[in-house]
């Protein structure tokens, strides 16, 4: 029997792979022909599994060791076997046609086992941008095959990276998946798979969320009155994945948490609330929303602050007769506390009521009324009547002027209903 060095030694060495399964392999047996021969290089129980191209394998045993006899049609074998150590070992192959025996000795072995494939739990991308989904493979070799699958509605589809202009990667040198110019339809679950010889490994799905920069809108708002409360709405779309809400006044960050008069500006309640509005609250307000892919800002909205002037309404006054008494009722709305209400007749103050005479309307502190009486009406009372209110903010409010008519003699009223329209007719009897 002749032995010689195999010129394909290096090529064959690259194709040998070992798979660690906890077995102590320190002997390699290759048996061809009618007689069995064991090539031993140590002790211990082991199992050999040979993967042979164009060949058939039968299970046998030798000296209590289990192995497989592989008959190769062309004399060339591609081997894979189980091993748990990296001791010196020998592989021998006998070619019966040429009676040549080759030996390979190794002090190290390239271990192959089922690959463990991991990806992130989730990824976020922005429309129009680029992103890379990492894929980590524990056992990566030159002949490892990488595949990427997209899972949608219970159906997994292999991504054809080679024929795509937007997908790159998915090779043993670069297992990661890169997506160029991300689109909304790229959203979904992705799975990375790796194959080493007959062993496959798959990652758990990684969900790719595709987001857009948030769109923020603040509508126009009515002027605020000093002392009142106001809410400046902030509408954000889409609301999902928003990570932060900020408010700006005149392009400066508004410290909502450091001011007891402000609230809101959160992810769950983005609108801004201002309590007891002050004159210096007037300005331009901007709402900003942030998500993992970008920032959106509203157009600045100007909030005007009006002084807290009392609003005064004078009840209608009917014509009166000289010598009678007339009661005038004034209705006042004021955020600040009212101090006094004055009745002015022909630019002359004829009556002033202090705060103790004011009455609440339905228990509302900001809406009050007061009744003022003119006793023994005279002819000179005829003319303009105005109600004026003064509050603690230092502002005066005036009603619309009302024309008081004073008659001499007896005044009677008759009310006639005709076709559902009420008409009023006055008859005057002059008595001297």
TrEMBL record:
GO function terms (MF aspect): axon guidance receptor activity
Biological processes per GO annotation: homophilic cell adhesion via plasma membrane adhesion molecules; synapse organization
Keyword Protein biosynthesis belongs to the record: no
Recorded coiled-coil stretches: none
Secretion signal, residue range per the UniProt entry: none
Domain of life of the source: Eukaryota
Domain Ig-like residues, every copy: 114-209, 214-291, 310-405
CDD domains: Ig
Record's protein name: Ig-like domain-containing protein
Organism for this UniProt entry: Mytilus galloprovincialis
